[in-house]
Amino acid sequence: MNKKLTTILVVLLGFTLITCEKDDICTDDTTPNLIIEFYKHGATTPTLKPVTKLKINVTNFSDLAFDGVSKISIPLKTSANETTFNFILNGSDTDASDDNLDVLKFSYTREDVFVSGACGYKTIYKNTDKNLTTDTDNWIKTITIIQPTIENEDETHVKIYF
Amino acid sequence: MKMKPMLKYIFSLLSIVVFAQNSDTLAVKNPDTIRSKERYTLRFGADLHRLSKSFYDDDYKGLELVGDLRLTKKFYAAVEVGSEKKFKDDVQVDYTTQGTYLKVGFDFNSYENWLDMKNVVSIGLRYGMSRFSQELHSYKIYQSSNYYGENTYTPDTKFSGLSAGWLEVVGSVKAELFHNLFLGFSLRLNYLLHEEKPTNFENLYIPGYNKTYDGKYGAGFNYTLTYMLPLFRMK
Question: What ipTM is given for this predicted complex?
Answer without folding.
Answer: 0.80
